[in-house]
Amino acid sequence: MGIAQIAESVTKKLRRSPKPAIYIAAAAVLTLMLFAMRPSGDKEQTEAVLTPAPQAAVFSENFEEQLEKRLCEIISEIQGVSNVSVMVTVEGTEEKVYVSDKSGSEEKYQSETVVLGSKEALLQSVRYPEIKGVLVVCGGGAKPSVKEKVVNAVSAVLDIPASKVYVTNSK
After folding, report:
1. Which residues contact residue 48 at a Cβ distance below 8 angstroms, ignoring those fewer than 6 apart?
2. pTM for this prediction
3. Do residues 151 and 167 lie in contact, with contact meaning Cβ atoms separated by under 8 Å?
4. What pLDDT digit, counting tens, does each position of 133-145 carry?
5. How far apart are alpha carbons 125 and 53 in whole angstroms?
C-alpha cells in the first residue's frame, strides 16, 4: 500500500465522520507543543556546579551555633563535667548542590538544573563547612580522665582527629 492509497483511505474515513479529524488535529497540536517545549540543542554546554547558598555566611553561622549548642548538651552529660562552653571553628561556608539533568553525547552534553513548579531548584545535598577545631572549656577539664572523655567524645561525634580538640578547665 503506497502513500497515495493511505492518504486516500484516510480522506474517505474523514468524510464519513468528523471525529477522526478532530483527533488527528488534537494529536498534531500536542506534537507541536511537545517540540516547542523541548530544549534546543544549540545552547552552550554547561556544567553542574556547586552553588553557594545566597546567604551562605548566615547558614554557616547557624551551623556553628547549632553544633556548639548540641555539643554543650552532650558534653555536659559526661560524668565529672560542669559549666560547659564550646567554640567550633570552620573553614568555608555551607554549599548546596542541586540536581541537574544531563543530556547529549559524551563529547558534548548539556546540563540543566532541575526546577520544580514553584521555581525552586531541586536540592540534591548540602555540604557543610569543614571543621577546623573545637575548644571546650568546662569544669573538671583539668582532670586527665575527664579531658580524655571529652576529647574522645568530640572527635568521635565530629569525625575529627583528637589533635583538633582542646579541652581546658573553666575558672
Report:
1. 98, 100, 102, 111, 113
2. 0.52
3. yes
4. 999 999 999 999 9
5. 12
Residue 75 burial (10 A CB sphere; 0-12, 13-18, 19+): buried
Name the grid cell of 160: 575529627
| Whether the Cβ atoms of residue 79 and residue 73 lie closer than 8 Å to each other | no
Q: How far is C-alpha 103 from the chain's CA centre?
A: 20
- Pair type for strands 130-139 and 165-169: parallel
pLDDT in tens, 52-85: 444 444 444 588 888 999 999 999 999 999 999 9
Q: Which three cell numbers stand for residue 40?
A: 534546543
Residue 69 C-alpha cell reads as 549548642
Cα(115)–Cα(139) distance, integer angstroms: 51
